[in-house]
Structure formats: structure tokens, C-alpha cells
Amino acid sequence: MYVPNGAWGITLLKEKLRNIKILRSLKTRIFLILLIVGLIPCIWMRHAILQNYEKRAVSVRTSDISTQLKILANHLITYHYLQDTSSEVINAEIDQLSSLYDGRVMIINGDLHVVKDTYGISENKTVISEEVVRCIKGESTSRYDKDNGYIEMTIPITETIVLGQDEPEKAENKEVVRGVMLVSASTDTIMATMVILNRNATIVEVIAIVGIFVISMLAAKCLIRPFEKITEALNEAQEGYTNDPISVTDYLETEHIGDAFNRVLGRMKLLDDSRQEFVSNVSHELKTPITSMKVLADSLITQDDVPVELYQEFMKDIADEIEREDKIITDLLSLVKMDRTAADLNIAQVDINMLVELIMKRLRPIAQKRDVELVYESVRPVTAAVDEVKLTLAISNLVENAIKYNKEHGWVKVTLDADHQFFTVEVADSGIGIPEESIEHIYERFYRVDKSRSREIGGTGLGLAITRNAIIMHRGSIKVVSEEEVGTTFTVKIPLTYIAV
Hints:
The protein is built from 11 helices and 12 strands. The protein has 501 residues and is α+β, with helices and mostly antiparallel strands. The chain has a domain of 154 residues: Heat Shock Protein 90 (2-Layer Sandwich), CATH 3.30.565. A 5-stranded antiparallel β-sheet has the order 2-1-5-4-3, sandwiched between helices. Strands 7-9-10-12-11 form a 5-stranded mixed β-sheet, covered by helices on one side. Strands 6-8 form a two-stranded antiparallel ribbon.
């Protein structure tokens, strides 16, 4: 894919900044944000104040000069200075005005001839410029040249004449432009004041920057402190120093993080307790058959002239214990496989009706042996995406348990149904039922409702744990309803289409 040079440069810059560890720190980012937010108004305010002062000073200087020039213009008309420049009073005023504003004053008559120049270099010359021409027409002009440090102004020299003196009732006054005053005034004093203000503003700005820097550091440290508390608490929990819940309520976000971690911590503790209990149960379950075999073997060893019948009986008991050990190990291996991720599922389209029929066919001899009637009802044809091996194991466990824990002349009914999204397998029996206080524990590993009967029929206490894991791996659910001495009903609900997460 082609990436423009500009975009490539921005992407490369972002990648480099991302690799700088300090810039990935929330504390650093908060500090930089506060620093920038503080500096921008400070710099802008300094610039605005200096600019506003300069604009105001130039305006005041221009207004002052304009007032002085208008007064001088009236004197020029009064003393007929445009016709005769010998008036010492007017010349003194012009020189004084030039010295006062450290500038240059030029008096130009109506023919655009310079009659007076305080610099003495343009007298009797003709001046033709846009500003002078516009001023002759009665329009004053003013221009501030910041680069060269002066204000240039043009003021018209006007004379008021009375028209219609012969008829007083029709007389009117008229302003007539007789000449122009062209003045250039220095702004050195304004610039000097600007330099002083700029220096003072720089000092104040540096102090403000240092203050903003310190405040930003302290604020960033205070704002990040709750997250540091969270980190400290997590490290303590990781090291095993404490199992107490984390509670940092400074911010809503830290409270949410603490609550989430407390839930995870609780779940981990539950899993740890479950793991320890599982190891203890496995040790007990595996040790019991071995202990029985050792007792039987020791009995044979310590006795002399053991009768063949007793020897055969003991060996048969040892074989039964070996078979029981084998069942426990087989179920444990199945359970380990079920504990793996759903990626281990071998999903394929399976005819569920045919699958349940094969399970019923395989278990029918066991039911006949225990005189239990096995009934299968299929409401409609069902095809679903499942792992055939794991689902077969789950349903087989349910049906086999229903047979084993049933009453004499009892029954087991398996019903298959489906809707547009799920299929359900219901396994109902007329068995001994499950006590209400035991229902929430039946999926725990090695848990047995009736331990004496479980030993008698060879149960390991792992079947329902295996069943539940297989169903959960299919994103399904399992529910149980039971009443003692009445029967139990397990309902399995599994999606027709498997969606991996």
C-alpha cells in the first residue's frame, strides 16, 4: 500500500514517540497538558498586552499631534503664512512642534510647493504624493511606520469664507483648503517604553512559567496518586502479603478498577480453593484403591497355606480395585481434556437424532440388567454443529446416571426437541432424586450425593463435572430439577450453530 511521504513521516514520528517510555506515562501526559494549558494563556496575554499598549500609545500620540497641528493651521491662516513665511512667531511654533515630537514639519501651499521645511532640504520644491493630494481635497491621513519608528500625518490648512455677504439672510460659511501640513513624528519614546515593558513582561513570564511548571508537577503527582495506590495494592496482593479487597475511592475510575480487581481476586481465591480441594480429593480417591489392594496383598503374604478359594477371592477384590482405579484415571483424563480451551473442539454437522439413538442402544443392556425401562422420544429431526465425541460423553453420563441411580422397575425418558436457535435434550428418571441442599454441589469434582451407593455402583464423582464442562464448551447450558424419591430431570440446551469467541 502506498503511503504519502507526509503521512509516512507522521506515522514514523508517532511510532518513535510511542517508544519513548516516559511519554507513555500518564503522570507525564497530565504534567504536559497542565503545563501547555498554563503556558499558552501566559504567552498570549503578554503578546496581547504589549500589542494593545503599542496600539494605544500610537493612537494617543497621533491624537495629540493632530490637535497641535490643527491649532497651528489656524495660526498659519491668521498670519497669512502661506503667502509670507517671515513671521517669527509662526516659525518659532513650527520649530517648537518639530522639536517637541522629534520630527519634521513641512508646510505645503495649494500649488503643492513647500514653503517651509524644518529640515531645510525641500523648501521651494514641489511635493506630489497620494497623501498630500488627498489632503488638498480635505481628507486627513495618518500612517504608523513601525519598522522605521515614526508616525506620518497630513493635516489640511483650511480657511473659512463667507459666501453671499451682500444678502445676509443667504450668507453661508465654506471651508476652503489653502495648503497642507505634512508631519513626521518619531516614536522612539514609545519604542523605549515598549522595551522596558517587554523586559518586565519577560521577567513576569519567566516567574509564571516556573510557577506553572512547579504547580503542574505537583498537580500531576497528586492526580496520579490514586493510581499509584492501586499499583501498590496490586503488588502487595501479587507478593501474597495481603488478601484484603482493594478500596481506592478517590476517583470513580479507580473505584471501578478496584472493584474489578476484587472480583478477579475473589475468583482466583475460589479457583485456588477449588484446586486445593481437587488435589486433596484426587489424592484420596487414588489412594483408597491402592490401600485396599495393599491390605489384600499383605493378607495373602502374611498367611501360610492360603486356600485357593480365599486366594481367588482376594485376587478378584484386587482386580475390582484396579478396575476402579482405572475408571478414576480415565475420568480424570476426560476432565482434563474438558478443561482445555474451546479451540480443542472438533466441530462438525452432526445428526443429533442418530447420536442419541446410538447412546440409547449402547446403554440399553445396562438398563435391562437393572430392570429400568429406557424410552427415547424425538420431536423433530435435529442437525447441529457440535463435537460429536464430547457431546456423546456428556449425554451418556446423564443417561447412565439416570439408570444407575434409579429404583427397581423404574424408567428413564430421553426427549429431543429443537427450535430455530437451540436444541434441547431432556433426561428424566424415576430415581432416588437429589436432596435440595446437594443440588448446587452436584457439578463439583468428586462430589457424591450418596457416597455409600456411589461406591457400590462404581461412581467416581466426576461424571457430572465432565458433562457440564462439555456443554459449556458448546456455549450451552444445563439445568436440573429434582425431588427425593420422585425423580430427577436434567435439561441440556445447546446452540444449533457453534460460534467461537
